[in-house]
């Protein structure tokens, strides 16, 4: 009888060393993991850490959207009028509308994802109840494909199924953690706050300086903000920072230039 190692495969520990596996099987498992996209040795592979990184990445992107869209709006209005109240009103309205739009879109998206995951879990639960033997063979096949011997894969599948069948099958077949589904409300609040924080940068930058300096001050503040979000997003994605920053700054600057001259044209035409 093989040693009991089932408690070390579930959930967050599924990429950690599996205690009790023979050395050859452990080597095969590690070798298989190295071929899986996104799996890297010498890097943390903790489920909670991965989740936090995803939230942080989404927050950075939300802040980036807030910076660019609000900067384009206030610079465009500043090109049309020197009235500080009009510029601030447009900026605040853009901040609120953009943050609500981001939050609403994220809520709908995550709700749809969670509904899909729940439906998949219900289907898996039905299949486990109706054909447990076939499901266990399917699970064994998954571990066999990852490099375990047929005998060891069957043992793994049997012991995992005995411990928590739904968790074992959801993790291996669906890559879903039934105990840690994403909350739509948390996602919505995160999107709302990140967009609002990003939008405050151009809004404050264009509100405080005198009329003659407000547009240039806003541009400088926005470029600094975009450099920071570009650097952070590149770091989180393990991508070249220079390219990400240049792309980010180019898009933001282009948006401000276009909206500014649209505002100037509109102001001249209306005036």
Automatic annotation (TrEMBL):
Pfam families: VIT1. One of its GO terms (cellular component) is endomembrane system. Its main location: membrane. It is found in: Endomembrane system. Residues 38-48 have a biased composition (Basic and acidic residues). The keyword Membrane applies. The chain crosses the membrane at residues 187-208, 214-237, 249-270. The keyword Methyltransferase does not apply. Residues 29-48 are annotated as: Disordered. One of its GO terms (biological process) is intracellular manganese ion homeostasis. GO terms for molecular function: manganese ion transmembrane transporter activity. It is a multi-pass membrane protein. Keywords: Membrane, Transmembrane, Transmembrane helix. This is Predicted Fe2+/Mn2+ transporter, VIT1/CCC1 family.
């Amino acid at each position: 009888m093989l040693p009991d190692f089932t408690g070390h495969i579930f959930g967050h520990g599924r990429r950690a060393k599996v205690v009790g596996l023979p050395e050859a099987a452990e080597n095969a498992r590690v070798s298989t993991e190295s071929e899986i996209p996104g799996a890297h040795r010498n890097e943390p592979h903790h489920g909670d850490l991965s989740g936090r990184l995803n939230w942080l990445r989404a927050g950075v992107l939300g802040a980036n959207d807030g910076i660019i869209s609000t900067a384009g709006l206030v610079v465009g209005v500043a090109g049309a009028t020197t009235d500080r109240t009009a510029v601030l009103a447009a900026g605040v309205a853009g901040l609120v509308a953009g943050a609500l739009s981001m939050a609403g879109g994220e809520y709908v998206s995550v709700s749809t994802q969670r509904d899909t995951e729940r439906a998949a879990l219900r289907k898996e639960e039905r299949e486990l109840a109706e054909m447990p033997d076939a499901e266990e063979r399917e699970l064994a096949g998954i571990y066999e494909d990852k490099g375990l011997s047929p005998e060891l894969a069957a043992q793994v599948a049997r012991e995992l199924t005995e411990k928590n069948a739904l968790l074992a099958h959801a993790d291996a077949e669906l890559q879903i953690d039934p105990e840690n589904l994403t909350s739509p409300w948390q996602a919505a609040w995160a999107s709302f706050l990140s967009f609002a924080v990003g939008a405050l940068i151009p809004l404050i930058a264009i509100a405080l300086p005198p009329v003659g300096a407000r547009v240039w001050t806003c541009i400088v503040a926005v470029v600094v903000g975009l450099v920071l979000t570009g650097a952070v997003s590149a770091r989180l994605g393990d991508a070249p920072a220079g390219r990400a920053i240049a792309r980010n700054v180019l898009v933001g600057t282009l948006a401000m230039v276009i909206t500014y001259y649209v505002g100037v044209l509109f102001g001249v035409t209306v005036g």
